[in-house]
């Protein structure tokens, strides 16, 4: 009986090893001919937002460069977790990609069980764009017109000033908490279920200020409905050139830009990752695309390498983990 058991164990071991070798060989062969069929690019949020717009803008020229159609599919649900986990579990062959945003990093930090790990479950390909946040105030509710005045006004209040965000753990919430700690001021957070209603109430004066992406707030700052105190990026935004960065306005070292990026499932062959990074980098340098998005306050930019993007993701996770611990931030 022991002999039979040993033979059975040996047979199973050979089959397992053979299967693993076959999978590895198959991936290697596919990498050599990649791509030879259409590619899916999953966007885990609803159509119309920055992630979706950037993904669709780069999909067409990337399709031409690769010689295969890239099909952009929106898979919203569970605060982007549905589409993200779908890609995490996809075959690591380069034919299912994920276009995501800063939420890719913050969700696993702020949620008890996001279902994926940004580092171990994905291969980073490249950043695709950066979008600074901007501190905007309702000019009828906040008389301050610069950072120094805004902080002084905040500290002088007998009750905490309230600010809006699109939800607990959102980019606006995180930016406001970072600002709060840097400026030494406490604020009352009013989370909304989405950015549009928060903006409506800010414009209507129900909420005095918020941190929002430049791409959605610039139009209101330019027409005077809101006043922009400062942007969160290292340098001024081309769409709001008169608005200083918070760093130059006096909050030394402050920076908090959001990003969009492209990812593949963990285990995708490095040859495929490198090919995708190379082609994406070229697409993002297109003068036409650069100008189109510059006018929207979005900076198209590629990572120097997939490895650099991976290091950036790891650093951002550590940063948000520390912020979540100190500020006790949890997502809805």
Note the topology:
Layout: H1 2-33, E1 39-43, H2 50-66, E2 70-74, H3 81-88, E3 96-101, H4 103-110, E4 122-131, E5 133-137, H5 147-156, E6 162-165, H6 171-183, E7 188-191, H7 195-204, E8 209-213, H8 214-222, E9 227-231, E10 258-265, H9 270-283, H10 287-294, E11 299-300, H11 306-327
Parallel strand pairs: 1-2, 1-3, 6-7, 6-8
Antiparallel strand pairs: 3-10, 4-10, 4-11, 5-8, 5-9
Explain the overall architecture:
The protein has helices at 2-33, 50-66, 81-88, 103-110, 147-156, 171-183, 195-204, 214-222, 270-283, 287-294, 306-327; strands at 39-43, 70-74, 96-101, 122-131, 133-137, 162-165, 188-191, 209-213, 227-231, 258-265, 299-300. It has 332 residues and is an alpha/beta fold. The strands form two sheets. A six-stranded mixed β-sheet has the order 2-1-3-10-4-11, with helices on both faces. A five-stranded mixed β-sheet has the order 7-6-8-5-9. Strand 6, helix 6 and strand 7 form a beta-alpha-beta unit. The N and C termini lie far apart (57 Å).
Number of helices: 11
Ends distance: 57 Å
- Could you please say which CATH topology of the largest domain applies here? D-Maltodextrin-Binding Protein, domain 2
- How many beta-strand elements? 11
In N-to-C order, the SSE pattern is HEHEHEHEEHEHEHEHEEHHEH
Level-2 CATH architecture of the largest domain: 3-Layer(aba) Sandwich
Structural class: alpha/beta
Q: How much strand?
A: 15-25%
- Globally, the shape reads globular
How are strands sequenced across the largest beta sheet?
A: 2-1-3-10-4-11
Helicity, in percent? 40-55%
Mean pLDDT: 90
Top-tier CATH class of the largest domain: Alpha Beta
What is the CA-based Rg, rounded? 23 Å
Biggest sheet: strands, sense, closure? Answer: 6 strands, mixed
């Amino acid at each position: 009986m022991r002999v039979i058991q040993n033979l059975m164990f040996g047979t199973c071991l050979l089959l397992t090893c053979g299967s693993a070798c076959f999978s590895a060989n198959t991936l290697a062969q596919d990498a050599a001919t990649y791509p030879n069929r259409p590619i899916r690019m999953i966007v885990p949020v609803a159509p119309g937002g920055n992630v979706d717009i950037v993904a669709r803008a780069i999909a067409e020229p990337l399709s031409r460069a690769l010689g295969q159609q890239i099909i952009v599919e929106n898979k919203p649900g569970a605060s982007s977790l549905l589409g993200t986990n779908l890609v995490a579990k996809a075959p690591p062959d380069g034919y299912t990609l994920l276009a995501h945003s800063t939420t890719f990093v913050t969700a696993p930090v702020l949620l008890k069980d996001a279902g994926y790990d940004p580092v171990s479950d994905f291969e980073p390909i490249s950043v695709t764009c950066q979008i600074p946040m901007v501190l905007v105030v309702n000019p009828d509710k906040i008389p301050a017109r610069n950072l120094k005045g805004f902080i002084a006004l905040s500290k002088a209040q007998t009750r905490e000033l309230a600010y809006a965000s699109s939800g607990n753990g959102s980019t606006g919430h995180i930016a406001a908490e970072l600002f709060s700690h840097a400026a030494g001021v406490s604020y009352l957070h009013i989370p909304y279920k989405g950015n549009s209603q928060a903006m409506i109430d800010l414009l209507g004066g129900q909420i005095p200020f918020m941190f929002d992406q430049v791409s959605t707030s610039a139009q209101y700052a330019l027409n005077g409905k809101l006043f922009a105190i400062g942007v969160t990026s290292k340098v001024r935004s081309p769409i709001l050139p008169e608005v200083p960065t918070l760093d130059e306005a006096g909050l030394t070292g402050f920076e908090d830009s959001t990003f969009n990026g492209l990812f593949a499932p963990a285990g995708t062959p490095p040859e495929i990752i490198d090919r995708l990074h190379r082609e994406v980098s070229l697409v993002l340098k297109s003068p036409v695309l650069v100008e189109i998005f510059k006018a929207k306050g979005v900076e198209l930019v590629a990572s120097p390498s997939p490895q650099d993007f991976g290091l950036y993701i790891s650093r951002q996770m550590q940063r948000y983990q520390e912020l979540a611990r100190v500020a006790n931030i949890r997502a809805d």
